[in-house]
Specification:
The chain has about 250 residues and is of the alpha/beta class. It has a single domain (about 1-245), classed as HUPs (Rossmann fold), CATH 3.40.50. It is built from 6 helices and 11 strands. The strands form 2 sheets. It has a 9-stranded mixed β-sheet with strand order 9-8-7-10-6-1-4-5-11, with helices on both faces. Strands 2-3 form a two-stranded antiparallel sheet. The longest helix has 15 residues, at about 35-50. The termini are far apart. Keywords: Electron transport, Transport.
């Protein structure tokens, strides 16, 4: 049984994001990049499924420039078996990414397709759902537990006010939430082994996906700077500040 995990290259979550001086985009030159944290959770879950004997191969796939090979090698060091990079320099719009991934899925025919619930850069939370629609499979979002029972993927997913359990026939698309697992660290021997694992690069325009630009980036601006908070000594002082300073009451 093959598990395919889609991963994305993103700014390291520990790095403070900076906007370019001309406001045209986010500054990426000299900025540390990393595997998107939610994608890392998805990779970890795929590896655990293999360790349980439920998966025979873990394939990681990314769409982007050649620089994304670094994050694919990270996933290989964590325990994935093989990697595919769909190489393109175009703006990574969710629908176009989903179309490229669906073509790879058609070729690879995995029984489970895992995504992080969203990427921390644009927070779109769209690609997994779009892929499920394009390949005509069942989907479960915000997964907090994944099991394989009676030839079905049984997924516990987080919803408002509790949890919901759904059963999906293979192939199934699942997006992974924070509470699904705690990703492992790559050991030095596995980092060295990852350098020899297969990583295939496919030009995006050879996949036959019908894509077009749907959006144009006009500019990026940092959020407004908030005023520092103050401490109050009593409830009456708090009420006075809310009434006369902030105007809340």
């Amino acid at each position: 049984m093959k598990v395919l995990v889609a991963v994305k290259r993103a700014i390291d979550p520990n790095v403070k994001v900076r906007v370019k001086a001309d406001g045209s985009d986010v500054e990426l030159n000299g900025v540390k990049m990393a595997l998107n944290p939610f994608c890392e959770i998805a990779v970890e879950e795929a590896i655990r499924l293999k360790e349980k004997g439920l998966a025979t191969e873990v394939l990681v796939v990314s769409v982007g420039t050649s620089a994304a090979q670094e994050q694919l090698r990270t996933a290989l060091a964590l325990g994935a078996d093989r990697a595919v990079l769909v190489e393109t320099g175009a703006l990574l719009e969710p629908l176009n990414v989903a179309k490229y991934l669906s073509k790879v899925i058609d070729n690879e025919k995995p029984q489970l397709i895992l995504f992080g619930k969203q990427a921390i850069d644009q927070e779109n939370n769209q690609v997994g759902q779009m892929v499920a629609q394009l390949i005509g499979s069942g989907q479960a979002t915000y997964a907090s537990a994944i099991n394989y029972v009676d030839e079905q993927w049984v997924v516990e997913r987080e919803v408002d006010g509790g949890s919901q359990t759904v059963a999906l026939s293979a192939p199934a698309v699942v997006t992974c939430d924070l509470r699904l697992n705690e990703p492992r660290y790559a050991s030095l021997p596995n980092i060295m082994k990852a350098k020899k694992k297969p990583l295939e690069v496919i030009a995006a325009d050879t996949l036959g996906a019908s894509v077009k630009a749907h959006a144009r980036l006009l500019g990026v601006a940092p959020p407004p700077v908030r005023k520092a908070g103050i401490k109050v000594g009593s409830v009456s002082e708090l009420v006075e500040k809310l009434r006369n300073v902030s105007g809340v009451i």
